[in-house]
Q: What sequence folds into this?
């Protein structure tokens, strides 16, 4: 596609349920990132994938958060047993070269009620 | 780890004036400094970036300067227009080069 695509664009879930967020990066981009943006805040790094290398998971806030990237393309971010503080916009970005020229999707707005 | 401070948090200017947003970073190993513009309901959009081997870069009305010694970099927007109104984020690469560490953003309002 022309840009980074994320789905769903909005997700409302009940506290305690699991959610999966999807990211389709720009074709040919080897690096993929997940960030979290809480209301009125900056972007918080969550996880980074680069090709076949082991992901950098240093930003994941708890073991309820996990992500995978299948076939070096599509990525899913999974949040288990969601809590109200997980409510935020989850942004995915991709780049051709690690750490450079990251292009963001429009994000998934997650609301935990 | 890397820490990025950004100021001001809000900035209001008249159309045609210049706007300057400043950021400081803590990790001297950072070597890549992008700026993003985020409009309401959209993802951040890369508008300009600079690497540590360059002191200044300009693209039409937008320029970025980098002072590695002082560990700060700035975004300059000249001849501002109402469509420049948005939240602007600065970022710096982490030491491993695996992530961008973002400032908390500056809300720029340009009034006509």
A:
């Amino acid at each position: 596609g022309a840009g980074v695509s994320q789905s769903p664009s909005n997700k409302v879930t009940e506290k305690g349920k699991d959610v999966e967020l999807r990211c389709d990066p720009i074709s040919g981009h080897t690096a993929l990132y997940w960030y979290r943006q809480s209301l009125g805040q900056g972007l918080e790094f969550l996880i980074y994938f680069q090709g076949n290398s082991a992901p950098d998971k240093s930003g994941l806030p708890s073991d309820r958060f996990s992500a995978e990237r299948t076939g070096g393309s599509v990525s899913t971010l999974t949040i288990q047993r969601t809590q109200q503080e997980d409510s935020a916009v989850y942004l995915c970005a991709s780049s051709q070269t690690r750490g450079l020229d990251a292009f963001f999707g429009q994000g998934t707005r997650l609301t935990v009620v | 780890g890397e820490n990025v401070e950004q100021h001001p948090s809000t900035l209001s200017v008249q159309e045609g004036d210049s706007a300057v947003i400043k950021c400081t970073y803590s990790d001297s190993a950072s070597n890549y400094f992008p700026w993003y513009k985020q409009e309401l309901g959209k993802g951040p959009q890369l508008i300009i970036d600079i690497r540590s081997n360059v002191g200044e870069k300009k693209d039409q009305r937008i320029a970025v300067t980098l002072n590695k010694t002082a560990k700060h970099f700035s975004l300059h927007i000249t001849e501002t227009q109402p469509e420049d109104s948005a939240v602007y984020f600065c970022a710096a690469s982490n030491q491993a080069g695996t992530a961008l560490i973002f400032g908390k953003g500056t809300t720029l309002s340009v009034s006509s």
Q: What stands out?
A: The mean pLDDT of chain A is 92.
